[in-house]
């Protein structure tokens, strides 16, 4: 903030008064919208907490996906969501090297070792929930990696594609062997 004095004046003309009233209404609408959106995010995080049987709503969620071009040029991506809002500045892309092309398990192992090895060493923030793109195999491999780096207490869930990889048919895979959970598309 500046120490320079600021002069305030009341509107002198009808046009100035109209502009001031419009600015005031816009500010009120912005505050209401932000409050409404915050409430929706909190409701969604609470619903996620209930669905996954977590002790607290997850504030920081990190999601991982492996992709490649016909088994080559394997890349892992990590997207981060904090309090229900995407954090674009925290998006990370990892080039995966030294694995057999198309080996998603090895790619997942590499990206999680890189990401959470640093977190375990005190660099970066530990998430409340990790979402892994994959089924039982990927979840099992991911759980083993988290245990190796000392983060086995972090909640983790796999998101397995449904029949025909059709959106809305995904199931959630738990590392503790619980029955897979199928959420309604509107959930």
Describe the structure.
With 187 residues, the chain is α/β, with parallel strands linked by helices. It contains 3 helices and 7 strands. It has helices spanning 14-52, 104-120, 136-148; strands at 60-69, 72-82, 85-86, 92-95, 129-133, 155-160, 171-173. Strands 1, 2, 3, 4, 5, 6 and 7 form a 7-stranded mixed sheet that branches. Helix 2 (104-120) runs parallel beside helix 3. The mean pLDDT is 85.
Give a brief description.
This protein has 187 residues and is an alpha/beta fold. The chain has helices at residues 14-52, 104-120, 136-148; strands at 60-69, 72-82, 85-86, 92-95, 129-133, 155-160, 171-173. The chain contains 3 helices and 7 strands, in the order αββββαβαββ.
The percent of residues in helical segments reads 25-40%
Uncertain residue segments: none
Radius of gyration: 23 Å
Strand segment tally:
7
Termini gap = 44 Å
Multimer state = single chain
Mean pLDDT: 85
Please summarize the sheet with the most strands.
7 strands, mixed
Order of helices and strands: HEEEEHEHEE
Structural class, judged by helices and strands? Answer: alpha/beta
Q: Roughly what fraction of the amino acids lie in strands?
A: 15-25%
Number of helices, counting only DSSP H or I runs of 4 residues or more: 3
**Molecular shape:** elongated
């Amino acid at each position: 903030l500046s120490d320079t004095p600021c002069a305030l004046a009341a509107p002198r003309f009808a046009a100035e008064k109209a502009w001031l009233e419009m600015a005031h209404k816009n500010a009120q609408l912005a505050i209401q919208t932000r409050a409404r959106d915050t409430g929706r995010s909190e409701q969604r995080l609470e619903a996620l907490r209930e669905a996954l049987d977590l002790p607290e709503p997850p504030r920081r969620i990190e999601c991982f996906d492996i992709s490649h071009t016909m088994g080559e040029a394997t890349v892992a991506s990590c997207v981060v969501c904090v309090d229900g809002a995407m954090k674009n500045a925290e998006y990370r892309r990892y080039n995966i090297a030294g694995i057999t092309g198309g080996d998603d398990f090895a790619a997942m192992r590499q990206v999680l070792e890189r990401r959470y090895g640093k977190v375990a060493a005190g660099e970066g923030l530990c998430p409340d929930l990790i979402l892994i793109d994959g089924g039982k195999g990927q979840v099992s491999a991911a759980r083993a990696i988290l245990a190796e780096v000392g983060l086995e207490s972090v909640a983790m869930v796999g998101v397995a594609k449904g029949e025909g990889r059709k959106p809305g048919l995904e199931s959630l895979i738990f590392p503790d062997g619980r029955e897979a959970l199928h959420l309604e598309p509107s959930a």
